[in-house]
Predict the structure.
Amino acid sequence: MSSTYAGIGVSNGVAVGVVARVHGPVLPPRDGAPIDVEKETDRAFDAFDEVGGELEALAQRAGASGAVLVRQARIARDPTLASLAAQLVSSGRTAPRAAWEAFGAYRDMRAADPMRAVPDRAELDDIRDRVVARLLGEPTPGIPDPGTPYVLVARDLSPAVTAGLDPQRVLAIVTERGGPTSHTAVLAKSLGIPAVVACPGVASLRSGQRVMVDGGAGEVTADPDAAAIDAAGRHVEPAAPPVVGPGRTRDGRSVQLLAAVGGAGDVADALAAGAEGVGVFRTEFAFLDRTEPPSVTEQSAAYREVFDAFPGREVTVRTLDIGADKPASFARLGDQPNPALGVRGLRVARRHPELLTDQLTAIATAARGSQAQVRVMAPMVATTAEAAWFAAQARQHGVKVTGVMVEVPAAALRAADLLQVVDFVSVGSNDLAQYTFATDRADGELADLLDPWQPAFLDLVATVLRAGAVAGRMVTVCGEAPSDPLLALVLVGLGAGALSMNARSLSDVRSTLARHSYDDCVRYAAAALSADGPSEARARVRAALDPG
Ligand code: PEP
Ligand code: MG
């Protein structure tokens, strides 16, 4: 009999396939009964050796991008590590416990050796988890590889892991945790993989079990019967003939429809969807798995590929937004008690100024030879002083048009001041909702508090858009909010001159916009602002759409 689990649908599409679970994390093994020292030592040595072989094989399959795996294989086979484990076994530890502790001792030893580089923590933890899982007879932690396409089921997925998923192999993503505007959700959407997050019941799904995932409805059905699959397939409505050309209201008012991209891989979809430019180029997405910062040359080549796809069009490059739920090993930020409120986005430049200056140099270099109208903006800006500092840095490094994202309520309230020191501001709706409602965007349990129809959120957006109108500057709204066609109308009514979204949403928003006049949009905006809560706001706008 089939059973259905409800979550939050974050990336549309229906997929049917077998489950492959992400295993882990591995917990520190306990020490148990007395041991046979010789046997446990052999077991530990074998596990190090086998994991070394496994990593080598993976490195070979990965080809040019397998440098990290080669390095990891070398560590797994480092005799120092094996001898640390042997010492721990001889003092009475079981092989799994000894291996666990040996990695800690190995890290300390390497950190104290001025002649050798300290291995990256995440790389070392990954080898340790593989070795310990093998010794405990547990499945290898990490992304599974069953050999045929599968539905990936996990407790949660990091953005770095999601960015590396292959849409040819992963039919759908289902996570027990995660929020609607989390970076994992954003990435799943841009990869075109149907996804459901915040779906607690799926903990009971087994690897190999057949499931149907409906990313639009936010439903996962275990062991679906033919009738259920047929019904879900019929749910997908035939597309209406698409409206083409630049975004405009029924009465011809222009609203630029821009794409959010994470790199050259997203460009084809953006162009096919008729994007008029790039609203936010999330530069960090390409580099999250790096242990060393990307060089200026490498960055500039990566940016140039995107710029060249949009000759004569605006491309807004967002400087690296790392930290919080997007950690990158190349920028060590330490253990922060509350990373989303800590060193993230522009604040990373306080600790690692060279990351920002290298990136600005790379952007300026790439922009110089291209036909695109390149602009640069910083994420996570709270004050006018930060905005002024960023603009000065950008100009000094040769980027002429500078702006900041409005993602923190303080910045929204002072948008008029920001516009005195930068050329433009752009609303980051995902983070603005997170910081307005003091609600982690990766927390599906609190998704109602992240709803962009919340009147307090719309008030802040309205404040920014008014400041733009007074200063005579066009303001873009980006993040997930503009991809809801009804909300897009409200944002236009509040004064947004450009909307940035995932390429897959552009067509719906363009068609919806073409059916309503600008005055209609102003009415919808007033209706939304007059509501007490998100459901009422939606209902009022729907009622205003159809007075009959
Ligand atoms: C946002 O916060 O809305 C945004 C566009 O940035 P990101 O989702 O990458 O944090
Ligand atoms: Mg953001």
